[in-house]
Design brief:
The protein is α+β, with helices and mostly antiparallel strands and 248 residues long. Helix content is 19%, strand content 17%.
């Protein structure tokens, strides 16, 4: 059985939100639209998005890191949102495994949102219907588009190619090779939903100051200095603050 999905490389995602804006533009003008922005600029902004990028700061200075984490519907192979829908509006397409919503049947009861452990469902306040990522089903099946454009809008828009699209059940596909060769993982597998979307883990680099360079940017730092505190190395003059500031 075919299972289309996204593989997201956290090493190269720069948090530019190109995927967010392209997703919003395509789906607002496509089969899912129009997506409501009730209060786009107020103190309490509200809007419907199929894809969001969450940004976190990790670590303790100077070994800090910024992590950009895109998240949308994971198109689970055993989606809990489907059986709880009282009208059958939520369903999993047999041809490619994409989880979709039939808007003509949706009554906006939010049962699917309560069942989804990933928070991937949103209620469109204007239409009173539950919405979510469709993997741009109306793009990938559109014969009017050139073959190279039959991909989700977010994949085409990503400037760093952090998003890969394909069939994870095909061992020779780009997504399957990326998962296999780079240790791709599922989000919260303990829920047994078998999410199809995978993430490629960030590769940690060893350094003494957070600059990412082997051995750090400190002048004359010894091989074991990276295990010492920043304060101790600073007092000995082993930290190049100028280089650290430029890097950050």
């Amino acid at each position: 059985m075919t299972q289309m999905a996204l593989v997201i490389d956290l090493n190269v995602c720069v948090g530019c939100h190109a995927c967010v804006t392209s997703c919003k533009e395509w789906n607002t003008s496509g089969e899912a639209g129009s997506l409501t922005d009730a209060r786009p600029y107020d103190d309490d902004p509200s809007g419907t998005f199929f894809n969001r990028v969450q940004t976190y700061e990790a670590g303790v200075f100077p070994m800090t890191d910024t992590i950009h984490f895109p998240k949308s519907c994971l198109h689970c192979e055993d989606p809990p949102c489907v059986p709880v829908c009282p009208t059958g509006a939520s369903y999993k397409r047999k041809s490619d495994g994409i989880v979709l919503v039939d808007y003509d049947k949706c009554i906006g009861c939010k049962y699917c949102a309560w069942a989804c452990p990933y928070g991937a469902r949103e209620l469109d306040e204007g239409r009173k219907e539950m919405t979510k990522c469709t993997l741009c089903a109306d793009r990938i099946d559109n014969p009017a588009l050139p073959e190279r454009d039959r991909k989700p809008a977010c994949v085409l828009a990503c400037p760093t190619s952090a998003r890969i699209f394909g069939d994870i059940h095909d061992p020779e596909s780009d997504v399957s090779r990326a998962i296999r060769e780079r240790g791709g993982y599922q989000l919260m597998p303990e829920w047994d939903t078998k999410p199809s979307n995978h993430y490629l883990p960030r590769v940690k680099t060893e350094s003494s100051c957070g600059c990412g360079k082997s051995g750090g940017c400190g002048s004359g730092a010894s091989a074991g200095a990276k295990d010492e505190s920043f304060e101790a190395r600073f007092e000995r003059g082993e930290v190049d603050l100028a280089a650290l500031a430029v890097h950050r």
